[in-house]
């Protein structure tokens, strides 16, 4: 049985950051990931908006995770891919992990354990909708995986339930793929996604957002044919005479995320009822000594930069625990920040997730926290520009798509023309992050570059 100082479960941004941090602090580390590739959920988040804090850049999800993957590989940290942890038990002061992969059942031993298992989506089953179970009903993340990773078309006429960020982002992605997104229906009287996503994913593409409205019934036997929508009052009661039938062939549910903590619960770790994740101290140590938790399985973060930062803290603390130097802290309950409510009458900067509200006072721009906000406001007034993030097809069966983006924002009016040029490409060779696939697309002095590698 192999022994490690620290074992990390989960190979997303939190797991990678914690493994690197533990290694940098002198620990022998092994990372276990259930998928065949590192990167976690960021592999399918091909849109930009990541890294503004940690890297001071506007990166796509694959680009952001590749920064950590490259460092992880350079450090030669041990890694078990396509591996599932089936049981964890404690013997003396060590943890014994049972796991299974293509080689069968095996065991590993460590002194400290870091849980970085991420979060999962709430499903349509957790929403009170009547009807049969036809095909064409997806969670937002599942739809994202089908479109961005597998390159599949999931439908033609789309209705989205819930205004979570993944749902908003998929509204834009599906529009770029030629789908008709009928609308986004949100039961609350305000959107739950970031203001920047309301602006660049809905308003930019004239996709209507219906607040205080929910879906009450799905029609269709084999495939979704239509849905029933209904408005709600301030007490969340249905307004019966407001019911309306909307024709569609696809329903996407974007109804929130919750920490994935089956392993934590199986270990009887104390769970915070507010966040649904483990109750931890400032070192991200859980109620069980030697077990740490970081990233979205601790609580769901708005920004991936904070996910990585929590991994760095947990990784260092786990190493200090192994050395016997960890100072015990009082466990704390997280106060989740309230989200900024989008005001459609204000100009919202989309250059980073801060979503600064901007205004003009004469020729001066007010409200921006950085120079990028000032430039965005002036561009928005005179010549609106947007980044285009999408994928190209490949000839590789195990990697049918390769994520790409514009190297810089382009004129908003050229988005669909640029998409036509991108859709002409098929990659049949190995490609690295940042490699130019189309030089000077449509004479814009902007290139189309790869944001992941094959």
3D architecture notes:
The two termini are 34 Å apart. Strands 1, 2, 5, 6, 7, 8 and 20 form a seven-stranded mixed β-sheet that branches. Strands 11-18-12-13-14 form a five-stranded parallel β-sheet. It is an alpha/beta fold and 454 residues long. Helix 1 (13-24) runs parallel beside helix 2 (61-74) and helix 1 (13-24) packs parallel to helix 7. The protein has helices spanning 13-24, 61-74, 140-149, 165-176, 195-202, 262-266, 304-323, 371-382, 415-422, and strands at 2-9, 29-32, 48-50, 59-60, 78-80, 84-91, 94-101, 104-115, 119-121, 130-131, 137-139, 157-161, 180-185, 209-210, 213-219, 226-231, 244-247, 250-253, 257-259, 291-293, 347-348, 357-361, 364-366, 385-386, 389-396, 399-406, 410-411, 426-427, 436-438, 448-450. The protein contains nine helices and 30 strands.
Largest sheet data: 7 strands, mixed
First-to-last CA distance: 34 Å
**Percent of residues in beta strands:** 25-35%
pLDDT < 50 runs, ≥5 residues? none
Figure out the total of helices: 9
Number of strands: 30
Class computed from helices, strands and strand pairing: alpha/beta
Radius of gyration: 23 Å
Mean pLDDT: 92
Task: Fill in the keyword field for this structure.
454 residues; 5-stranded parallel beta sheet; 7-stranded mixed beta sheet; 30 strands; alpha/beta; single chain; 30% strand
Question: Can you summarize this structure?
Answer:
With 454 residues, the protein is of the alpha/beta class. It contains nine helices and 30 strands.
